[in-house]
Design goal:
Shape: globular
Number of helices: 15
Largest sheet: 5 strands, parallel
Bound molecules: zinc ion
Distance between the termini: 58 Å
């Protein structure tokens, strides 16, 4: 029988645990298998939030997660009254948001089973938000199940993580991702292999690349940058190009969504209504929404820059592999000739330094450094021979 857990690629080691928990949750006994607070960790793209959502579906589905019934489907699309998926658009989850959430989930589950909250970015909880959440998690006898997702356990406050059961997802193998793209998304084997390889096990990114021509060509431009760093002027130019591409990628995916959101909000307030109170209320709400959208746009640009830097890093990783005499597959096999000649033109020491320049830039950006300046500094280090 099909199950919501089928889509979790390369995570067999946790699927059994989740299935046992679902079974235990039905018996009503105080079993070890079921607990009401969980943390899902794993590298980006391993599917930690997909795993959490699948678990949520299975908990509320009468068939333990068939994926086909009303409960399963409404849970996945955000339409189930007992399942709430918190996706952060901003840079942090604030205490007010948690308080609102707690009021919403204070009611008993409408269908009598469990109420499930999936928090996709528990690492973005501010400290006060985390302590508000902690109180809810500690509450005894609750029918709410908390599924928190974060990159690593260190990203979750110790007080919270000590009360949660921890599940660590793995990066799925390139082969596993390729197979999913072919079977589930109907992508050609050659394209699936390329996308899986350059995305290094990040399923979402792999699918995005495989199905999106402009994303692929943007990536290609980024990957050619290391070959065009002949002077400092070229380095500054490359930094600007990287930022422009990342900004473009982020804005194409957010613009239409922004517009739709504003339209929906105006409809909710009765577009064209002339009542004075109505107009000010709507204007205020639109202003709030625009503020949120701006903060989301900033985050999306930063995420896109990070993806570009990870892509760039694969170039130097391949260079180092070639320098080490490794004859195995490289990530950017479509650029093997360029990578081989680049590898013979610089020392291993220099390749290592370039790789650390990229990693340092990622670190600074994660600490909110100015994107253009950080990339300029990085490109200058990449340009140095
Ligand atoms: Zn179902």
């Amino acid at each position: 029988m099909a199950s919501v857990f089928d889509d979790l690629v390369g995570q067999e080691h946790i699927i059994d645990i989740l299935k046992n928990a679902v079974t235990a949750s039905r018996t009503g006994s105080d079993s070890q298998e079921m607990t009401h607070a969980w943390v899902f960790t794993g590298p980006p793209g391993s599917g930690r939030s997909s795993a959490a959502v699948a678990f949520a579906q299975a908990l509320i589905c009468p068939n333990q997660g068939c994926g086909a019934c009303n409960e399963c489907q409404s849970a996945a699309t955000g339409g189930h009254p007992d399942v709430e998926v918190i996706r952060t658009e901003g840079l942090s989850i604030k205490v007010e948001e948690i308080r609102e959430l707690l009021t919403r989930v204070a009611w008993a589950p409408s269908m009598g089973g469990w109420r499930v909250v999936v928090m996709e970015d528990a690492d973005r909880l501010t400290e006060s938000a985390a302590s508000a959440l902690l109180k809810a998690i500690e509450e005894p006898g609750t029918r709410t199940v908390w599924l928190l997702c974060a990159p690593t356990l260190h990203d979750v406050l110790p007080t919270i993580r000590s009360r949660c059961r921890h599940l660590q997802l793995r990066t799925p193998s390139i082969d596993a991702v390729t197979q999913v793209l072919i079977k589930r998304d109907d992508i050609s084997p050659t394209m699936a292999d390329f996308a899986a390889r350059v995305s290094q096990g990040h399923i979402g990114r792999a699918r995005y690349l495989a199905t999106n021509e402009s994303v692929r060509s943007n990536r290609k431009v980024i990957m050619l940058l290391p070959l065009q760093l002949g002077s400092l002027a070229a380095a500054f130019h490359a930094a600007q190009a990287l930022i422009d591409l990342a900004t473009e990628e982020a804005s194409t995916s957010s613009e239409s969504r922004d517009e739709k959101e504003i339209e929906k909000l105006q409809e909710a307030y009765g577009k064209g209504a002339t009542g004075r109170g109505m107009a000010t209320g709507a204007a205020k709400a639109v202003k709030e929404l625009e503020k949120e959208q701006k903060s989301r746009a900033t985050r999306m640009v930063r995420d896109a820059i990070d993806v570009a830097l990870i892509d760039l890093a694969t170039f130097y990783r391949d260079v180092m592999l070639v320098q080490a005499g490794d004859k195995g597959p490289i990530v950017n096999s479509d650029m093997r000739t360029e990578i081989e000649s680049f590898a013979s033109s610089i020392s291993t020491h220099s390749a290592v330094q370039k790789m650390s320049a990229i990693m340092e830039a990622r670190k600074y950006l994660a600490m909110n450094a100015a994107p253009l300046m950080t990339c300029e500094a990085m490109m200058c280090r990449l340009a140095r021979v």
